[in-house]
Amino acid sequence: MNLNATLFAQLAVFFILAWFTMRFVWPPIVKALDERAIKIAEGLAAAERGRQSLDLAAKHSAETMREGKSKVTEIIAQAEKRGQQIIEEAKAQARIEAEKVIIGAKVEIEQEAARVKEALRERVAELAVAGAEKILLREVDVRTHADMLTSIKMEL
Q1: Which residue from 148, 147, 144 is spatially nearest to 131, judged by alpha carbons?
Q2: Is the pTM of the predicted complex or chain greater than 0.70?
Q3: How many structural domains is the chain composed of?
Q4: Are 156 and 124 in contact (CB under 8 A)?
Q5: Which of 69, 128, 147, 153 gives a 20 to 30 Å CA spacing to 54?
Q6: Residue 140: enclosing H or E segment and its boundaries?
Q7: What is d(CA 33, CA 30) in angstroms, rounded to the nearest whole number?
Q8: Residue 31, Cβ neighbours under 10 Å: how many?
Q9: Structural domain for 8, as ranges
């Protein structure tokens, strides 16, 4: 055997194998590796966007919580203020109603006093008439008249 022929044959087989590998085997492997690298890069980018989105959402939720707390505080303050207004309005209304009741009671008392005065006048008139009748029925006597007037005064 000739060393040169074997060497050339091995060299030829090596180049054919290298050409075959570079032509048919290597491109699908490189393509698969490139696709995998792209997917990994996209995944890392998506993870970064997700992290940024999470940070943004955390900031937004913290801001929303602050706004909510301030609104709640404001609403509570308004409710307390409105409660005080309602209490003051109720007090004012109660004062007005009390004044109306007092005025009504005064009017009623005045009417009752007027009725009592009128009844008293009628009674005085009746007593005067009765006294006059008694005086006229009896004989005219100064002492008797004085006794009768005294008794009438006592009845009044």
Answers
A1: 148
A2: no
A3: 1
A4: yes
A5: 69
A6: none
A7: 5
A8: 10
A9: 3-155
Packing angle between helix 142-155 and helix 26-137, nearest 10 degrees?
Answer: 170
Short-list 65, 45, 63, 41, CA closest to 53: 45
- Residues in Cβ contact with 134 at an 8 Å cutoff, skipping those fewer than 6 apart: 148
Token representation of residue 48: 């970064």
Query: Tens digits of per-residue pLDDT, 71-122?
Result: 999 999 999 999 999 999 999 999 999 999 999 988 999 899 888 888 887 7
Beta carbons within 8 Å of 148's beta carbon, 6+ residues apart: 131, 134, 135, 138
Cα gap 93→87, rounded to integer Å: 10
* Spatial CA neighbour of 130 closest among 139, 118, 122: 122
